Write a sequence for this structure.
């Protein structure tokens, strides 16, 4: 098959959608011709216009306009129309220029078009008056565009509940989850990492992801004064605008010596941090899936997470604990339950390593390939 992916942000950028597209494209490239159409910018960097990574042919186009996350204009995406593709798989919901490309491709070719929207448009709780107007307008437009797809992928089994509200035909919704690479199970030496961040003889609660307000790290810092002093919070990831505020908060609460911001980490550093950790926490206001939860499971962490869309699918009583976003009392209670019960936490760690092996990209790619083949045969 000749398969194209259309996604606004792509490798080497990292994130849920970016990782999903990158790892599936890599797996599919072992058997098929894979093209990725994406913008040339990310995190204020300009990437190479054309390159091949692990057999994936990446085409990057100049971004003419970008405001925050969704409002973008990349005219070069029209180049997708020049490719004779069997399947065009977009990762998009609310990117209006992508919708235009899909409409044109659908109108002038027999290409089967698949979408993985990942999550609802502007999924957080509180927006300004103007932002709410913008959100409602885009959702209205999506009622039309979402009828164009031959299949729509949900990354957890409950996403259909909001997808149908966006005009997506329930019969077209297929399930293929996010996943992890087999490399995540490789052994690493973490002695230097432990020494660098003074983690020896500490009970580590870890986080991995962007340091951003909606990610909810403030909740962990606010309860640290009431927790045992052996407990430290290791926050791994790039600052996305909230680190300075959190540092000041930790100083105000006199726990700055127990809050460790590493900045962006390498793959080995990520694994070393997770290996040093007992509990991985995902305190986000919202997540569609949470690939980092799977990575933490694979490294033998118990999980504590907010009751977000992804965590409610991945985290059950035998492998972690959930709480409502903003409920600091429950968060504190959950941490203390695990901190004080070695048998419970060890059981969760063991269960999580086993569970993580059910979500390998190589297996997920086979299911996606099957969906593509069915849609092509239908046509």
């Amino acid at each position: 098959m000749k398969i194209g992916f259309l996604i606004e942000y792509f490798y080497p950028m990292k994130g849920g959608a970016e990782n999903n597209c990158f790892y599936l494209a890599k797996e599919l490239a072992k058997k098929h011709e894979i093209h990725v159409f994406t913008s040339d910018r990310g995190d204020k960097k300009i990437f190479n216009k054309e390159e091949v990574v692990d057999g994936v042919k990446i085409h990057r186009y100049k971004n003419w306009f970008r405001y925050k996350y969704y409002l973008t204009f990349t005219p070069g995406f029209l180049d997708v129309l020049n490719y004779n593709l069997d399947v065009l798989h977009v990762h998009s919901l609310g990117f209006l220029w992508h919708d235009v490309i899909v409409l044109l491709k659908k109108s002038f070719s027999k290409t089967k078009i698949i979408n993985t929207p990942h999550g609802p448009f502007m999924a957080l709780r509180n927006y300004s008056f103007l932002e709410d107007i913008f959100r409602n307008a885009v959702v209205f437009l999506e009622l039309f565009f979402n009828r164009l797809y031959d299949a729509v992928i949900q990354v957890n089994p409950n996403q259909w509940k909001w997808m149908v509200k966006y005009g997506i035909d329930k019969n077209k919704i297929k399930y293929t989850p996010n996943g992890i690479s087999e490399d995540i199970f490789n052994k690493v030496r973490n002695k230097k990492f432990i020494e660098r961040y003074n983690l020896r003889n500490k009970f580590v609660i870890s986080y991995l992801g962007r340091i951003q307000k909606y990610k909810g790290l403030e909740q962990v810092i606010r309860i640290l004064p009431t927790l045992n002093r052996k407990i430290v919070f290791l926050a791994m990831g790039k600052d996305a605008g909230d680190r300075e505020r959190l540092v000041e908060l930790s100083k105000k609460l006199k726990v700055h010596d127990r809050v460790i911001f590493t900045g962006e980490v390498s793959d080995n550093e990520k694994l070393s941090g997770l290996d040093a950790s007992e509990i991985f926490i995902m305190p986000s206001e919202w997540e569609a899936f949470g690939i980092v939860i799977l990575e933490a499971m694979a490294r033998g962490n118990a999980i504590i997470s907010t009751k977000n869309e992804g965590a409610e699918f991945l985290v059950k009583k035998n492998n972690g604990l959930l709480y409502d976003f903003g409920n600091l009392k429950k968060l504190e209670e959950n941490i203390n339950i695990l901190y004080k019960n070695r048998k419970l936490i060890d059981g969760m760690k063991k269960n999580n390593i086993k569970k993580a092996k059910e979500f390998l990209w190589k297996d997920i790619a086979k299911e996606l390939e099957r969906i593509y083949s069915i849609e092509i045969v239908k046509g």
About this structure: The chain has two domains: 2-179+360-378, 182-356.
